[in-house]
Amino acid sequence: MTDKLKKAIAIATEKQGITNSIINLEHPEDNAFGDFSSNVALVYSKQLKVAPKVLAEKIIEELKKENIEEVSSVELAGPGFINIKIKDAYFVKGIADLAKQGETVGKITKDAGRKVMVEYTDPNPFKIFHIGHLMANTVGESLARITEFSGAEVIRACYQGDVGLHVAKTMWGIINFVKEHNPIPRDESTLVEKVSYMGKAYVYGNQFYETDAECKREITEINGLIYSKIFQSETFPIFKKEYDWGLKISLEYFDTVYKKLGTKFDKFYFESEVALDGVKIVKEFLAKGVFENSEGAIVFPGEKHGEHTRVFINSQGLPTYEAKELGLTMKKFGDFPGLSESIAVTANEQNAYFKVIIAAFGVMYPEIASKMKHLSHGILRPSSGKMSSRKGNVVSAEVLLEEFESLVEEKLKDRKFTTEEHDEVRRVVAVAALKFTILRQAIGGDIIYDPTKAVSFEGDSGPYLQYATVRANAVIAKAKEAGVSEAVVKTPEKVELLEKLLIRFPEIIERARLEYAPHHIVTYLVNLASEFNSYYANNQIVSTTDELSPYRVSLAKVFAQVMKNGLWVLGIKVPERM
Fold first, then answer.
1. CA distances from 201 to 212, 219, 283, 292, 340 (A)
2. Which residues lie across from 187 on neighbouring strands?
C-alpha cells in the first residue's frame, strides 16, 4: 500500500510541475488523523512558488480522480499535510493474508539474490570478553538477522586479534606469573578459572608495561616474536606452549558466550592470517604512490583524500591494525566471490580508523570500497562509568549476564517450573532483557543500563515483549481446547489499531534494513504488544457463542507470530512459559 500511494502522489505531484519528486509517507501518531500522511506539499511549495495548502489541495484533487480502491478519504490537514485513510476491508484482508503466511510473516524480498557479510563481536583472544563485545554481538547479530529476513544470503564473520601488543602483555604476565610460582591452571581446572588466570596475567603485564621501562622493553621484544608467527619464523616457539594454551582457552570461552547469546558464526578470521597480505598490499601500492614513507614508517596520506594520515606499517616493520584490515577485507571478498555488501560492526572509537580504511580502498579498489559499510555502537555503561580492561575493572560478559539472571531468578521464584524449564526461562529472559536494553535506541550512542528495569515484565523491556507473546500463545491454546478455530469469515464492522499495526510489520522490517536500525523494530514491537494487551483486556477472544471469536483468535495467532518473528530478528527467543 505504501508503494502504491507513493506512486499515486508522485503522479499527482508531477501534474503540478514537479518531476522526480521524493515522496515521504508517515503513519500519524494519532490514528484519528488517518493511516498515512505526506508533507509533499510543504516540501515543494517553495519551488512552485505557491502556498503549501494550495498545492496540497491540487494534489488531493488529483488523488481523488485516481479513485484508489483501498482509499476511503484524502484530506487536507494543518499547514499543508495530506492525510489518507484506508478502508477497513483492506486491513481485514491483510490479516487474512498474514494468517495464511504462517511462520514467514514479515519476510520480504528486498535483498533476494544478494550475498551480505556481517562482521561483528571481534573479541581479542588473551583478553576478557567484556560488555563492549556484548554490544557488538547484539547489534551485529540483529543486523545479520534483519538482512536475512530481507531475503539475502548472510555470512556471519568474527575477526579476532591473535597477535598484537595485548598478546605480548598477556604472555609476559603468564611467564612472570610462572616465575613467581603461579603455574598455569591444570587441565582439570574450570574454564572460568583458566580465563580468570589469563585476565589477571594481562592486567599484570599491562601494569608493568606502563610503569617499568625494562619490562616495557621485554614486552615489546615479545611482541616482535609473536609477530614472527606471521612470517613463519623459527623464533616464535620459545613460548609457543603458553601462547597455544591461551589461544585455545580464549576460543573455548568465547564459544560458551556465543551459545548463550544465540550466535553461530560462519567464518572466523585471525589477524595473523591476514597481516602478511596487508603488508603486501601496502608495499604494492607504496610503489604506485598511494602510500608514502614517513620517518621509517609507511603511511596513508589521508589529507589528500579528505581524511587524516595513519600509519599502516610502523617503524619496526610491523603491520598496524590498518594494514591488517586491508588484508582482512581482501580475504573476505576473495573467500566469498559475489559479495554484495560487507558490513563491519565495531565500537564508535574506531570511526576515524574505518574512514581512512575505506578512503584507502577508494583509491586502490573503488569497487570494493563501494560495498563496504561500517557501523559503530556506543558503550554500555554501568553506574561506575567507563570500564577498562587495562586497569582490571572490566565488566565481563559473564558477570553482566549473571547479574541479569539473578534478577530474573527473583521474579521466577514463586512460579512452578521443572528445573530444566526454570533454567531455560531464566537464561532466555535475561538475554532478552540485555538485548532489548542495547537495541531500544539508535545505534551509536552510549547506554546507561538499569538491570532492575530491564528485567521488568511490565513496560518497556524485553521480558515484557516475551510475556505478551506467551500470553497470546496461551489464548491460542485455550481456543484449541474449546474447539474454536481461527478464521477470517465473520469480521468486525470496524477494525482497531491492532490490525493496522500488524499489517505494518513487513514495512518496519524494510525500514530497519534500509537504515541499519534495529531500534525501529523494538519501538514497533513495544507499541504492538501494548495494543494487543489493550485488545485482550477489552475483548473476549475465546468464546463458543460469539461469532467473532474465530476472527479474534486468528488475530491473536497473527500477533503471536509477528511478535515471535520480530523478537527473533532482535536475537530474542520466546519461552513457552513465563
1. 16, 13, 36, 38, 42
2. none
CATH topology of domain 115-274+318-381: Rossmann fold (3.40.50)
Q: Is the overall model pTM greater than 0.90, yes or no?
A: yes
Judged against a pLDDT cut of 80, whether residue 351 lies above it is answered with yes
Q: Which residues pair with 77 in a beta bridge?
A: 81
Residue 220 has pLDDT above 90, yes or no: yes
Question: What are 100-158's pLDDT values in tens digits?
Answer: 999 999 999 999 999 999 999 999 999 889 889 999 999 999 999 999 999 999 999 99
Place of cell 583458566: 194
60 exposed, middle or buried (CB, 10 Å; 0-12, 13-18, 19+)? buried
* C-alpha span between 345 and 326 (Å, rounded): 16
Q: State the Cα–Cα distance between residues 451 and 460, nearest whole angstrom.
A: 12
pLDDT at residue 548 is higher than 60 = yes
- The neighbouring-strand residues paired with 342 are 117, 372
Angle ∠(50,51,56) on CA atoms, nearest 5 = 100
What CATH number labels 2-86?
A: 3.30.1360.70
The residues facing 385 across adjacent strands are none
Residues of the chain with CATH 3.30.1360.70: 2-86
Residues 53-89: pLDDT tens digits? 999 999 999 999 999 999 999 999 999 999 999 999 9
The residues of the chain that CATH labels 1.10.730.10 are 397-569
Fold designation for 397-569: Isoleucyl-tRNA Synthetase; Domain 1 (1.10.730)
Beta strands of 149-291 (E only): which ranges?
A: 153-160, 267-270
